[in-house]
């Protein structure tokens, strides 16, 4: 029996994750947390390495495949191809010593019946990748989004900007933190080695183990992408107001609203996801009322002053953090999502006091889930009146709002600082 070498199990798990995403069209979040997860028997550091390696490979899959194709003379079995992809990513992207990556790949090939006879091929191809691949890789464009994604994006984003967005996806995302107070942020910026962003988030380029960072145990902050922090900020002063966080899990916006002084009710359809919301609030010492219910069949006892609807969506704005999404969901059927979003908007409008404010947001770069929904609402017999959002109030730049006064964020915005998730935010007031 072959002895396991350092890092081998993590690499094998990464290969299995790739197989499940690319062949079975499964999402990494389901694979990582599922009962059949290839990570289930790994030590924490190996789990982290396997997940990171799989994500890095997916971010760079197109260019990595182009390099591999230079040295493959015939069609390669999928079982070996993913081994080669992982090893090539280590060499070309991670900068792992070539001999270590090659040796690990050959060992993985030996350990599988389907690939044992291809170990020499793996060795030969990867040695060429190590010698000639970096020069080729440096000339290649980032992983291209599927045609269906580009088609949807083209309705609001110029085609000449697609490359910048795809580059942002390839580079991945730094870690952003939201704080209970700006006083805490200013104190902890230096301790954390982070950068205070214009919107008030603290950005860390190298976070390490999150639970070991200063302020985690004390509940001073929570992880939340810069863009995801914007919707709650659009309300302005919420001190003492009754606020509903609709579709609340995992709770980042619930914590924001509570920290802003609101009397928050957090609603989500999933009891499991709501457990995470409760855990997050307990750690941070913030408060909220919890409701587990289907929003479409629920009715509040008292109307709200404000409602935040961060609606279920395609999540296409989060690809830099979830590079598996374009592969697992190559073709989106937006029909059911659009219907759900519209129904939730109309329900929320019924639960506001006259003069109450609704914030509608999606982490999507598709116009249909953002601008399109606002246009749809304008044609309905609704008591919601659109409001202009001033991006400068949130520390954003003027170009981050569209001509109708809605916030439209993209992954390539503030690219020099690490970018941000794609997000759409619209603001409405109930008129009667």
What is the number of E strands?
A: 12
Shape: globular
Q: Report the top-level CATH class of the largest domain.
A: Alpha Beta
Briefly note the structural class of the backbone. Answer: alpha/beta
The second-level CATH architecture of the largest domain is 3-Layer(aba) Sandwich
Amount of beta strand = 5-15%
Major sheet size, sense and barrel closure: 8 strands, mixed
How many structural domains?
A: 3
- Write down the secondary-structure element order: HHHHHHHHHEHEEEHEHEHEEHHEHEEE
The portion of residues assigned to helices is 40-55%
Query: CATH homologous superfamily name of the largest domain?
Result: Vaccinia Virus protein VP39
User: Ranges with pLDDT <50 over ≥5 residues?
Assistant: none
Q: What gyration radius follows from the Cα positions, in whole Å? A: 23 Å
Report how far the terminal alpha carbons are from each other.
75 Å
Q: What is CATH's topology name of the largest domain?
A: Rossmann fold
Describe this protein with a few key phrases:
N-utilizing Substance Protein B Homolog, Chain A; 16 helices; 12 strands; globular
Please render the helix and strand layout as text.
Elements: H1 8-22, H2 28-33, H3 44-59, H4 61-69, H5 78-94, H6 98-110, H7 119-137, H8 147-153, H9 162-171, E1 175-179, H10 182-192, E2 195-196, E3 202-204, E4 221-223, H11 230-233, E5 242-246, H12 252-259, E6 263-268, H13 271-284, E7 289-292, E8 304-310, H14 325-328, H15 335-350, E9 352-362, H16 371-378, E10 384-387, E11 407-409, E12 423-430
Parallel strand pairs: 5-6, 5-8, 6-7, 8-9
Antiparallel strand pairs: 1-3, 1-4, 2-3, 9-12, 10-12, 11-12
């Amino acid at each position: 029996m072959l002895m396991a070498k350092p890092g081998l199990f993590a690499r094998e798990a990464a290969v299995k994750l790739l197989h499940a995403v690319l062949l079975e069209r499964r999402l990494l979040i389901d694979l990582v947390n599922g009962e059949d997860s290839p990570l289930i028997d790994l030590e924490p550091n190996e789990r982290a390495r396997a997940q990171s390696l799989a994500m890095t490979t997916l971010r760079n899959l197109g260019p990595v495949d182009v390099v591999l194709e230079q040295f493959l003379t015939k069609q390669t079995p999928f079982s070996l191809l993913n081994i080669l992809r992982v090893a090539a990513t280590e060499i070309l992207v991670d900068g792992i010593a070539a001999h270590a990556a090659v040796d690990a790949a050959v060992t993985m090939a030996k350990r599988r019946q389907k690939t044992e006879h291809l170990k020499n091929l793996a060795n030969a191809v990867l040695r060429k990748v190590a010698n000639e691949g970096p020069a080729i890789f440096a000339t290649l464009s980032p992983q291209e989004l599927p045609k269906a994604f580009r088609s949807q994006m083209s309705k609001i984003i110029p085609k000449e900007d697609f490359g910048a967005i795809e580059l942002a996806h390839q580079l991945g995302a730094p870690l952003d933190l939201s704080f209970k107070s700006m006083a805490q942020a200013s104190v902890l910026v230096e301790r954390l080695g982070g950068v205070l962003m214009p919107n008030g988030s603290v950005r860390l380029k190298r976070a390490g183990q999150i639970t070991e960072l200063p302020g985690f145990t004390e509940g001073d902050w929570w992880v939340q992408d810069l863009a995801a922090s914007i919707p709650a900020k659009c309300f302005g002063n919420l001190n003492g107001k009754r606020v509903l966080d609709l579709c609340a899990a995992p709770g980042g916006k619930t914590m924001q609203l509570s920290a802003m002084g609101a009397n928050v009710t957090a609603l989500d359809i999933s009891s499991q996801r709501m457990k995470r919301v409760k855990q997050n609030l307990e750690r941070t010492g913030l408060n909220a009322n919890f409701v587990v219910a289907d929003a479409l069949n629920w009715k509040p006892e008292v109307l709200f002053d404000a409602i935040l609807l961060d609606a279920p969506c395609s999540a296409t704005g989060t690809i830099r953090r979830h590079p598996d999404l374009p592969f697992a969901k190559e073709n989106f059927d937006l029909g059911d999502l659009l219907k759900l979003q519209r129904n939730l908007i109309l329900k929320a409008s019924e639960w506001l006091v006259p003069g109450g404010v609704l914030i509608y947001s999606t982490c999507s770069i598709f116009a249909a889930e953002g601008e399109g929904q606002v246009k749809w609402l304008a044609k309905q017999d609704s008591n919601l009146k659109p409001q202009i959002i001033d991006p400068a109030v949130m520390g954003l730049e003027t170009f981050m709002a569209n001509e109708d006064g809605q916030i439209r964020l993209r992954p390539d915005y503030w690219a020099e600082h690490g970018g941000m998730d794609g997000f759409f935010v619209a603001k409405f007031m109930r008129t009667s």
